[in-house]
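quick one, 359 residues, struct below
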Amino acid sequence: MSAPPAPRARQTTARRRAAYLAYLAEGTDRFQEPPREDCPWCGSQRLRTRLRAGDLRLHKPGRFLLAECRDCVHTFQNPRLTAEGVTFYHRDLDEGRLAGVVARTGVRRGHRSAARAMLRFTEPESWLDVGTGHARFPQRAREFFPYTAFDGLDTTWRVQRAQAAGRVEEAYIGHLTDPHIRARLRARYDVVSMLQHLHHTPDPREELRAALDVLRPGGHLLVELPDPRSVFALLLGKWWLPYDQPRHLHLPPPANLRAELEARGCTVLAVDRRTAHVPYDLAGAFALALSHALPAPDTPWRAIPPTRLQRGLRATLLAAGLPLVAAAWTADHALAPLLRHTPFANAYRLIARKGASAA
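---
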């Protein structure tokens, strides 16, 4: 089976386009599992369709559905991506520039807030950041915890570069649920953080179990996630950036995470929407809508490359639309002090302490 080439250059080459088209000629059905009729969190069969959307960030082929459980309000992708689908749709994320910049900038602004939230609960010796990427969070957190040893785990090579840059002391490549990683790191850490990570995982409940395994008794778990019950999610629909189909597989509400952790012997110390709110909803929606409304970009998974006129028109209209995105960004930040105290808050932070019986 062929595989798409890794992104190497900014400009699309004919060779890379041919490789992508050959890969996609095998069909896209293999990218999705069979649809399920019950909720993966509580097992209820009372499901409703929350939204249907394409890949608004990268314009890759496919249509995706988010379902919501009427009983526990868990929101999940149905049908879910296969492992091959996850690889395909996560590849080339740097090419989704405008919405990607909005998302990355917004999330990074919350790193200091997340680290500061842990100050009143613990002074850890060891900390594992799961889904760390380039380890920007450990870099910020070290400002508050200068004597803590930060390690990072990620599924990509980025964590090794972060180690080389000194942002983490030890780097692990893989999934926390991998048996060899789970066994190697068992009961090793005082804090495990999962910031904007859990919704990328195929089984968030198993991911939580693995996090508790690598925590010492009395250790702390720090989780941040988009809140699917945010009013912005309801108003903006598919243009709400945290939906990010097809890359986000699960969006559990805070009540579900609290109940799961308490059932495993943990004490939930805090659930905070106010400081976890990331002001990027309007800017993200404008960025997605603008990119969608313009002529499609020149991407290697597009069978017919755009003409020079289409490329020029896209560049011109994109430049003309950027002030709208900037104005939306300004509005996001101007409204944030008010909205973070209301149901418009778009994320939540949960801090729990592992009990001796948690497993």
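The chain has a mean pLDDT of 91.
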